[in-house]
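Exam review. A common question shows you a sequence with its structure tokens and asks you to describe the fold in words. Practice with the pair below. Do the first one on your own.
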Amino acid sequence: MINGNFAVAQSGGPTAAINASLCGVICEALRNDRKIYGMLNGVTGAIDDNFADLGKIFDNTQNLKLLKNTPAAFLGSCRYRLPDFDGKCDIYERIFENFASKNITMAIYIGGNDSMDTVMKLCAYAQKHKKNVLFAGVPKTIDNDLVGTDHTPGFGSAAKFVASAISEIARDCAVYADRSATVVEIMGRNAGWLTAASALARSSTSSAPHLIYLPERPLSRSKMIEDIKNCRARNIVIAVSEGIKNENGEYYSNLDCNSGHDKFGHAQLCGSAKVVENIIKENFGIKTRSVELNVLQRCSSHFASLTDLDEAEMIGAFGVKALLSGNTGIVAGFERIKEYEVKPIINDVLKVANFEKTVPDSFIAENGYDVTEKAIEYLRPLILGEPQIEMENGIPKHIAL
């Protein structure tokens, strides 16, 4: 078993389950009598020597229980891209000096695609310069686009919120006799997993959403108009990914604006639902509105998936166990077994970082505006169960640093 202390950080967009993973990391580290430090605001905390002693904060079960059900990132987050290196690099040297001062020999980074790039670089630098620190990534992203895992913690809770929101939007629309269209924009730049999950809203009393558009399928303006024309619903509900593209590969959301790129080179998108809304108004002249779920779908802990939270906690603990066993340069993941059961697995970070898992063809209907039953079977177990939420003055109680 590896000697030394742990460090843990959270990075990228927050979720309803990222703190449940942190809870698993803390519990397993303390169970093994290790000190555990939280890097504040991702890897920048290690660069700036900004750490919190998590053992002191979470020395009781009540705080840990609150942490598991608190949304967003307790330690703070960042979108910081570590520089490439050839020889020695001042930024990396500062990180490892700060680790050494606290006898940190194992570090866990909880995050998505870009965060795994950080794990990969830190591990590579440690190996090249013989630094005595092991690194593991614990997956997190509502986009569900991380490779090497059946699904990612955070996705199930976001999918549950999306499906519930679509169901309630459909109820709102159905009260009017006049024909109408409501376009709901759901997160997902190049992977339409969350938008696909909108199909879970369908029930014996509602067929909404009636059209589902994913970024995995190019969508021409003429096809969209034809699909809407052929839709028999009086009050049409349309679910669109923020990253839907036309037949020329252009994002609908950027057709009327130029919002640039982020630090990792990803296009900054700005309103695909509004573009679709305007197309419907121009061609059909019916009452139309667009709804952008935006950050609401990321941290809606009051309606989280218990399955998601429990799995997030489990995979956080697994990351600790993997490092104690001497693994490094790894990313934890899930393998689905039996009807619905998962077990944690280990992936090489080189096969995860900077790759993207999109919705497979078998999950997308041939008509291009729906998902298949196979997709529903994959999605449904991930949203099941409701956690017991502690309330304070009528709203969920959270813990903050």
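Now try the second one, then compare your answer with the model answer below.
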Amino acid sequence: MDVRGAVFVGPRRPLSVEDLRLDVPATGEVRVRMAASGICHSDLHVVDGEWPRPQDVVLGHEGAAIVEELGEGVPGRAADAPLDAGLRIGDLVVLAWTAACQRCAACLRGQSWLCTTPDGAGHRLAPELVRVRRPDGRAVGVYSGIGTHATHQVVAASAAIPVDPRTPVEVAALIGCAATTGVGAVRNTAAVQAGEVVVVIGLGGVGLSAIMAAVDAGAGCIVAVDREPAKLELALACGATDAFAPAEASEGVGRLTDGGADHVFEAIGLPTTVELAVDLARPGGTITLVGMTPQGERAGIDVYRFVEDGKRLLGSNYGSAVPARDFPWIASAVVAGRLPMELLVTERIGLDGIEAAFDAMRRRDGARRVIVFPPPRRRR
């Protein structure tokens, strides 16, 4: 079938929005019609050449879609069956960029977010995995196995997680990355408890999601840190109790706490803010690194002081999430009003608005731009 997608053609070059061809799903795969796709900072790292990635790949890894076709061997679901019983045509699904294989060592020890051989791995560039082609037949890859910056896609069935159909599609898209990464860091990686003091540094989609999760966990004091006043205001709307610029954070957290925060989440990925996060944690406190730096960058800590204070440093990949478990939970919390994820959507755009969205991200303007794909026209 004919599709349209935004193709990464090399670092520091605009994406190429092209007409493409999509093959039928093979065994264990599904065809989906994209409903919405977020523009994530990880996409920008690729475009700006900070993360080396193959070119000629449909970009995007944060999306929600409607199931249109089931490949052979994909378990179907009866109308009255629970969402985790299989897939149905018409399901609203959130796409997981780590579709765990359930066979590697990480999966077998219950850490599927660290899967080394996810379904659809290698950006679907292996000949047997190619499903997208240019009109002349040349293969086009699919970023992280899901390539959400396209009107349609073929993905592994294990990557398509059904969620409550009442979830707004632009919010469902964010569950695919930002929301799960932030919420999971709080719930899964750090396991924040009621009454604890939480600091979140960096207030993009991930950091704001972490603030919402801290509110939901019953944290007693939730401090937001960012250099942009508008983002500090948005964090307060999401439930933060206090907000500071980075230069004011040490004094502010010191005034609010007895020796520092129980939990500090770094959600922007800068060496300077990683170092700040370590400083803001109390003795015995936990620092959880969520933000991704450009590859190869390092941060420094006072090792003696860190050990003397007995602090803990954690890395949180994809919020330590199991998509089949966590995506539906987050969607249900959104529908119930516990996680106001709609606050993350700064602007709804079309596929041709991607470059402007990247420029806005470089300016640190807003939380998330989301591509909302028009539904198909009804036949008369």
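Model answer, second protein: The chain has eleven helices and 18 strands. The first strand starts at residue 2 and ends at 8. Full marks require stating both points clearly.
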